[in-house]
Amino acid sequence: MNRQEAEILYNSGKEPTVIKLLEYDAENKQFKKKIAQLEKNSKTSSKPPSSDGPQDKDLKPETQKKDPAKRKPGGQHGHKGTCRKLIPVEDVDEIIPYYPDRCEGCGKQLPQDETAVTTGEPFRWQVTEIEPIKAAVTEHQAHTTLCECGCHTAAALPPEIVKSNFGSRLTAIIAYLAAVLHVSRRGTCEFFITFLNIQIALGSIQNLLEDTSKALDPIDKVLKDTLPEEPVLNADETGWRDRWLWIFVAPMFIYFQAARSRGHTVLLDVLGAVYNGILCVDRWGAYTKYHKRLFQICWAHLKRDFLGILKIGYSIQSADAIFFAQTMEKLRKQIMAIWYQFKAGKISRLILIKKTRSIIYAMKRCLKRYMHSEDRCVRNLAGRLYRRFDHLFTFIFYEGVEPTNNIAERGIRPAVQWRKICFGNRSDNGAVLTSRLLTVTRTCWLQKRNPLEFLVEAVTAYRTSNSAPSLI
């Protein structure tokens, strides 16, 4: 609107002017709401942290704004520092002693060997170095022997030897570089040439990865068969080119499944027709459609929902949004504070249940009050949570259940980082390889085992036709 149009509107009288201003105000609120939606990041929505851009790094919700004076980078005052520890003397490969040349008192020349009279413990300084790496090449020669009868008999090489020109450890290193360090096939070639002085073709790398996939097949099947028996599972999913990569986290292992669908059919395939345990997830519809028993809805996602509604409420001046989000976030903090006391062993589960009872009732009253709010965002979230209210507090009453889905999100984060580099898989076999490698390496991470050594064991067992190592 320009000045001339504004003057015409003003001269038209009170009623048309008021109507037009109200229309503009409604449009302005809609625009602000859309802007707030577009500005959402992982702190104010269910978007994963990996989706945040550099501009989102320092953004904070309205309620978390702090003093503009930023703290200095690096360790803060009172932070307990860490330093590299010396390894025991008996584990050192070489010790080089140093002795002073002359006495600082009289200037006399001092002995430069073990005959010197030393006092106290020497100052120790250790330097770690890697010697040039040289691959060990073993040549297997099958001879042909001439018998007295005139027959020529050729020796046969062991079956496990002729399966590949590359050993189990080298094969496992290639798998580790791909699954844990997310190195491309060409990057792996460069690594072997530069660091190990080994010439290896791209095709050979792919063949060795396919061998690794076959070696991990029985391990993968055992874990998949064990999943339905677990009493508590955390689950999540992320996009993977034209597929979806699902993660299922049990207390002692992690299982990945690459699938074409993000629907409940994947859960039917992995967990069977009925899963009798507790499923800890976000509110994605596939989980609620499949599972008809106990849930634990992730409170980290709910926190982001509350902060997102609060941000929208401030932008459009919605009293319902502001009060609802502030109330639910305040109650959430109270219940989490009591939960952390329980986790620290300061209170028993019985005390946890008693202390949280009044807070749970207060949350229920708040949700019921805002189920019919005029603010659509508030109304939708309050209604959904009220209908799922019994699934919000499973962690308070059942052992082994956490209030958030953090363990699944942490488990799937390396897969997201890998996807950003490789852009997913082009074939079904590649997707299977990806899921198996992630299953094994992330389970080793959970169990604090060395994933490289486990891969070596698995490949060796496959080539020698022995039983695969277990992750159970």
What are the SSEs and their pairings?
Blueprint: H1 3-11, H2 14-38, E1 144-146, E2 152-154, H3 168-179, H4 185-195, H5 202-226, E3 232-240, E4 243-249, E5 254-259, H6 265-271, E6 278-281, H7 285-290, E7 295-297, H8 299-316, H9 319-343, H10 349-369, H11 376-387, H12 394-397, H13 406-422, H14 428-447, H15 451-463
Parallel strand pairs: 3-6, 6-7
Antiparallel strand pairs: 1-2, 3-4, 4-5
Short description:
The model has no long low-confidence stretch (mean pLDDT 88). The chain is an alpha/beta fold and 472 residues long. It is extended, with a radius of gyration of 32 Å.
Notes on the structure:
- The structure is a single chain.
- By secondary structure, this protein is of the alpha/beta class.
- The protein has a domain at 299-400.
- The protein has 15 helices and 7 strands.
- The protein has helices at 3-11, 14-38, 168-179, 185-195, 202-226, 265-271, 285-290, 299-316, 319-343, 349-369, 376-387, 394-397, 406-422, 428-447, 451-463, and strands at residues 144-146, 152-154, 232-240, 243-249, 254-259, 278-281, 295-297.
- The chain has a 5-stranded mixed sheet with strand order 5-4-3-6-7.
- Helix 5 crosses helix 14 (428-447).
- The longest helix is centred in the first third of the chain and has 25 residues, at 14-38.
- 27% of the residues are buried.
